[in-house]
Amino acid sequence: MLLLNLQQNPLSFIFLLSFTIWTWWTLDGVVSEPQLSYVKSGCSSYNVSDVAIFNKNLNASMRSLRAQVSNQSKHSAVAQAVKGNNPAYGVFQCRNYLSIKDCLACFDFAAVHIYDNCSVSATGARVIYEGCFLRYESSIFFDQSTDGGNHIVCGNPVAKNSTELASTVQQVLKNLVEATPRIPGFFAATITPVPDSKGSNIYAFAQCLETVTQSGCQDCLESGLRNFQICIPNSNAKIFYAGCFMRYSTSAFFTANQTTDIKRILKQGDSSKKTIIGGVVGGASFILILLALFALYRRSLFKRVHRVDILGATELKGPVNYRYKDLKSATKNFSEENKLGEGGFGDVYKGTLKNGEVIAIKKLALEQSKKMDEDFESEVKLISNVHHRNLVRLLGCCSKGQERFLVYEYMKNNNVGQFLFGGDRGSLNWKQRYGIILGTARGLAYLHEGFHICIVHRDIKPSNILLDDDFQPKIADFGLARLLPRDQSHLNTKFAGTMGYTAPEYVMHGQLSEKVDTYCYGVVVLEIISGQKSGELKNDDQGEFLLQRAWKLYERGMHMEFVDETLDPNEYDAEEVKKIIEIGLLCTQASPAARPTMFEVVDMIESKGGLIDHKRPTMPVYVDSNVGIRRDG
């Protein structure tokens, strides 16, 4: 099935659609339910040396995915085709409560959607239906469990028994989050009665991609559980993440014989349940041993089939080691005319390689030591595997004597600061600004929770948010950011941010956490909306700093007075702008604990309507380089 021809040959689309519909009505003589309600999709483009070869690899991967579902009766499939150094990687997963026939139908629709909505040159795409998830990329992504493309859907509020329903849902979802990562195949379905509800049940289901790790599955579901709180106690809700899916409903969406016994997996349980007849215990132990052996066998088989080649490819690929003479030639000996700017870690130059590829080269200004050299090498290897559409991609590195260079993809449209405060001031419309605000949030959310190590940027500001050809934002300068261990709430570290953007706890006490990035982001959001620079006084009689002005206007309900006067009022929705201003203020709260996570920020931006009541901002705090921490009443 050559899916890439669908855009260029509409007859292929019509044939596939007709075939799929015919399949529903003829197989087994019944009409099935593949749950084809559209949820979300997206396209992306990363550099590949030969698009034609990539497309051939992509077709091969897609055929393999479909064959695994059709011939091997699989609900989850992984494929890769790596011919010609232009690999294509694909993942498909449908809900385990669907039949294989329905999975296949969902795959066909998802494949048609991807190729009907993404250009032939797209080297990355995903589509989410209620019943399935399909994604392909030109780089490995199989271990990603969360990113900025997450989505949540809340059902209708419940008028009766809402308290009982909410507490039951909370416990059910908590149990699923704990049990699912321990179950072979990473999926579980449960039916739980609601107390005092005259027969009402909670139907719940959780599922992770089989390609993520157990801890990745756990992290993904825990993140989903946190975001579910905005829906409870609605009658139903669903989360769609890159690496997991979770759903609950008061209505049945799977049959009783598809449930999973998760009681044996959960840690809690009263002692009476442990007092069982010896023969039953022995029988249960035997079954558990068989299940454990089966799980080990399935996991080891899965790793042999799907992971050995994948991880090997990552290690073999790694960052490219560029030759110094090639970089020197590409930048005309690092000439001033090729200089793009100066950053905290060094100067940046535009370079054109002999094959015509345009790159950005950062000439690092680092202290020289044996430890620094080791840190540089290890962090470059790590960061080169950080792939997200809203992060500038690190292509490779170069060492020449004591000098160190990082090579990044080149961003044609400079940085956000140029369009807010530089020569291009006033040229960004609201749609572009909204896209920058959302995309930056997604990139930060991925750095904090989507990658397998938490990365705190420390210096989010407009000049570190670059823009591609379509004005999509890509966060730069995270290549040498310190890495925050999972078991620590903050690090005490030397200050390395920019005054006017950095959180007070970091400036005053050196406490570094993800919430430092949240604060920086909030300041940037307010700058994007107002066109006013954070550290500069507003040129009017009030003489207020950015956060002062934003808070006072918010308190008075005069949000729209804060909006950049260069924006056309006919281009934006006032309620949407108000919500974004309030999100910016939420991110700049005095207490780090009061600030939302970046995943929560993404959900707030994407959700319809205003902020919910308990998310109202309080007075922000900011740091004046001359005075110190300031708040205004």
Strand order in the sheet with the most strands: 11-15-16-14-13-12
- By DSSP (H or I, 4+ residues per run), the number of helices equals 16
CATH fold-level topology of the largest domain: Transferase(Phosphotransferase), domain 1
In CATH, the homologous superfamily of the largest domain goes by the name Transferase(Phosphotransferase) domain 1
DSSP helix fraction: 25-40%
CATH architecture annotation of the largest domain: Orthogonal Bundle
Number of domains: 4
pLDDT averaged over residues: 77
Distance between the termini: 65 Å
Let me know the number of strands. Answer: 24
Determine Rg (CA atoms, Å). 26 Å
Low-confidence stretches: 1-32, 268-285, 294-317, 482-495
How can the largest sheet be summarized?
6 strands, mixed
**Strand content of the residues, in percent?**
15-25%
* Global morphology: globular
Q: Structural class, please?
A: alpha+beta
* CATH C-level name of the largest domain: Mainly Alpha
Provide an overview of this structure:
This protein is α+β, with helices and mostly antiparallel strands. It folds into four domains: 3-137, Killer Toxin P4, Chain A (2-Layer Sandwich); 157-265, Killer Toxin P4, Chain A (2-Layer Sandwich); 321-409, Phosphorylase Kinase, domain 1 (2-Layer Sandwich); 416-630, Transferase(Phosphotransferase) domain 1 (Transferase(Phosphotransferase), domain 1), CATH 1.10.510. Helices cover 37% and strands 18% of the residues. It has a six-stranded mixed beta sheet, covered by helices on one side. Strands 1-4-5-3-2 form a five-stranded antiparallel beta sheet, covered by helices on one side. The protein has a five-stranded antiparallel beta sheet with strand order 6-9-10-8-7, with helices on one face. A hairpin with a 5-residue loop joins β13 (346-352) and β14. α1 (10-26) runs antiparallel to α3 and α13 packs antiparallel against α15. The longest helix is centred in the middle third of the chain and has 40 residues, at 278-317. It starts with 9 loop residues before the first helix and ends with a strand.
